Amino acid sequence: MSTPTGILAEYRAQRAVSKPASRTIKPWYQNMPLVAGAIVVGVLVLIAVLAPVIAPYDPIAQNLQETLQSPSSEHWLGTDKFGRDVFSRLIWGARVDLRVGFIAVIIPFTFGTIIGGLAGYFGGWFDIIVMRIVDVFFAFPFFVMIIALVFIFGAGESSIYLAIAIVSWVAYAKIVRGEVIVAKEQDYVVGAQLGGMSHMRILFRHIGPNVLSQAIIYAMSDIVMDIMAIVALGYLGLGIAPPVAEWGSMILEGQEFITTHWMQATVPGLIVVVTSLGVSWLGDGLSDLLNPDRRK
Amino acid sequence: MIRRPGTVIAALGAAAALLLSGCSATASGPTDDGPVSGGDLVFARATGVTSLNTTTVHNNVSIFTAEQLMETLFTVSDDGKDIEPWLATGYEISDDELTYTVTLRDDVEFSNGQKLTAEDVKFSIDQDTKTADTGWGYINEAIKEVRVVDDLTVEFELKYVSSPFLAVLTMFSNQIVPKGYAGMSVDEFYENPIGTGPFVLDEWKKGQYFKVVRNENYWQKDKPYLDSVQWNVVADVNTRKLQLQGGQIDVDVQPDWSSFDSLNETPGIVAKAFDSTLSWNIAFNQEREPFDDVHVRRAIAYAVDRQAIVDAVLFGNGTPANSLIAPGTPYYDENADGPSFDLEKAKAELAKSEYPDGFSTTLLISSGNTEKSSTAQIIQAALKKIGITVEITPLGPTTAHDAVLAMDYDMTLSGWTMDIPDPDQWTTFAVDPAGGSNSDNTGYNNPEAIAINTKAKEESDPEKRAELYSELQRITGKDAFLAYLYYSPYGFAFSESVKGFHVTPLGNYHLEDVYISE
Amino acid sequence: MLHRLTFIPSRLLQAVPVVFGVTLIVFFMAHLLPGDPAQAILGDKATPDAVSALRTQMGLDKPIWAQYFLFLAHLAQGDLGMSFTYQRPVTEIVLQAIPVTMSLVVFALTLTLVISIPLAAIAATAPDKPRDFAVRTFTLIGQGMPQFWVGIMLILLLAVRARIFPVGGFGETILDHVYYLFLPALTLAISLSPTAIRSLRTSTISVLGSDYVSTARSKGASGVPLFRQHVLRNAAIPTVSVIGVHLGYLVGGSIVIEKVFAIPGLGSLMLDAIYARDFPTIQAVTLFVGIFVTFVGILTDVIYTLMDPRVNLAAKGRA
Fold this sequence. Notes:
The structure holds three protein chains of three kinds. Chain B is α+β, with helices and mostly antiparallel strands.
């Protein structure tokens, strides 16, 4: 599990020791993390999309005559305390957790990148104010802020998006600002400025593509973090309301039976680990692909 | 072990308490050579004591704890059906049934060494009566005057004949405290009360634990056996269970029904379901549409499969409810025919209502309680079948309670345990809008039901009372102002070395009888 | 050495607007909440007159900026209001919980170092070899495990099955605390280690490639002594900043973990307050955590400067 501040610090440490490019860019199919990540994430996305087709049972249909069954050929992972098929709930859970995880990064990504880009490019008082705001947000641990905000906005999916947007944009702003400051000293930008090109064009044409790759790489870690947040909220009973199948609330419900049916809390957690691993690999792979000189 | 509620278990429990033998369930347990002094008992339960002022506090956790510090004139028998003298030695009733003369024990001292007198009794009862608007005072409604006759004699004059009166004196809100709160203000006093109970308060860390130590001045010689009792707040039910298994605590209050069997099979642990007066219902807010429509309420009452809830949520440890009154209460009518599961009738009733195609509504529950959230989810699924969409809204226990009091809800899960061995406390609370709670916060107002309830209260012939209460149970069932769900026993799991632990159907326990063997 | 500490005053000065920002956010959180605080305190049965009297008394009828200054004035006196649930000053309740959470955090930090330093060394001494790959895979998996789930799994394995550790609680004596806090601290350490390992590994690789390590090698130093004397100190520098940054994360993580292990710290306090909608308590915990993290940030910078001769924060400010 990670945090924006943590990833940033790590990122800073890595930059500090980054060596000049010593390798050539490998073709994508030799980029193991990228391939592995793409496969894992691809399969999960496919499962989520095809959930109605592949799930053997309705994930919320109760069958109170068949509660807490052990795994069998009918119910591969058994049934929960309402007699719902755990395997089907896992599959439908992918829909919720992946959807929320991926959608949640969109707003902070966009907003943070724009604010950070502008702050880095123009500097001055705007930069100072933005950076002070960023400092303030970094003062609150990710979870403290998310939990407090979801509490204020009320449980539910849109509250989660809003809370994550409010907390996460600062990390993008900080990364992109740093990249822009470096990029704007580059010859081609200075040249464009001297050539009379407008600020907006320079930002979008020349600086944008270069700094965006960092934001995209960070977004992968951010997705993992958001999934962690959704799962934790579900576990705390502050997430998406029952009876919707969601991995975090499945762990919560399974915890009740930890001494008798240990699989119920274990399996949804394993799926979360696999998902995060896939997205992290994807992030590592993208990082190799987009700036090979910075890794390791 | 018999875990089904019923008279059998109550009788067993009573016998156990009498013999002080604890009735150990497994043969391999430590041998029991009778009560031993010493030892510390540690409970773990989900919530903590919020207040010790028993004239106003409404939660059972606080009440059952305060009962270890302060006592009443009369108490309820172990089976919950009879009334026994406690701080009193006995009573006489005048011919017109309007005056009760109560004599007190002469050997009772408060924990500060002060002797118990009739003056203290008058003060205590009067103080409770004054809380009619803010607390339990309404329970003393029948009392006209309390008079001190001599040091050990008190006279109660009633406004009208009231059969439940003696039961009222067993009520925790009528606990006896020193006159004038021993010179303290009410608030000061209840921070560290002086009572006649077997224990005195040692340390109270709000939200964490509550610890009492033995009262050296206790009037029952050689009791209590325990040196101290501590109630820890452990919100998570799994943690409580695992702490019991790990020997960190001795008593787990309300283990999950799901792990009840497995707990009982754990060596050294006894899981016991005590017969109770606890019933759970769906309460409808009749001040709001569509619940002002009797057909809507009946449709919902018919739509829920109670046996399924008992099986899935209580894991069989309970019975489907059919009446306003719970089986552990006198005058429960087993033939009271409250709505039971019948999907066809549910659909027919909804068709007769103004919402034949269903509607959307909310079900308010208090968060962090597995039993309630599971019940709510089953209700949600059941009502979906007749076209009613339910959104479950979990709120913190305090907030949920406030919302219900403010009539700011659609449906909620409402539970009740009797506090006195007489149905009147509950029926007046539930069907009489003037009974202290706006009819269990439903807004239910049926003049016929109110009239029968009043008549039953004033009737002294038990047979006639039984008839009246049967009639009341029939009418309230038909009105479906509550949808009766299930009767649940009290689940406790405790270490085998804990002996003499018994819970009455009213939920209280006499810890002065408890001891730890080995 | 001393002259390098001259940046501390300016660093503290920088923290001032941040602390103000923190108070501002916490203050506005209260105003985002639906409902009237006066009504919430008095309950639903209060008369409108009583509510409006309390509103005046609490300053709720004043303009918002005036209310903010009132909030700051109370804060300066350590007054954050009364907890709705416990009817006691919130400050008192929070102060009671702080030592519990702090001991958990310090314990977790210690375990994190115990786990991370050897693993990072194993990986860094053989970059891109199988053992490096193994450590890196561990960090990826560790990063992907929901913290509370790790806690549940540790309970399942070490408390329920093996019965080595208690399943939760805090105990009464100091020795109890250490014993009770081991599993929760380990849980936090497992989830923090991946970040620490990654950063330690990166910096160790860089130190191992540096000139003076080559020099030390050429003088015959090798193995553990070389590692301890020459590599570790230099490699630890970036780690200090990572750990500093993560103290805040540990405080945040302890919220969920305290629930899993039933530890009576800030996290349990905050979650219980959330379930009970006890706003003053939520506000106080959030405020404390925000200010704490800000000052840990400063402390980290100080230690960073003291350890690393190359850093001169006095000249550059915070990177």
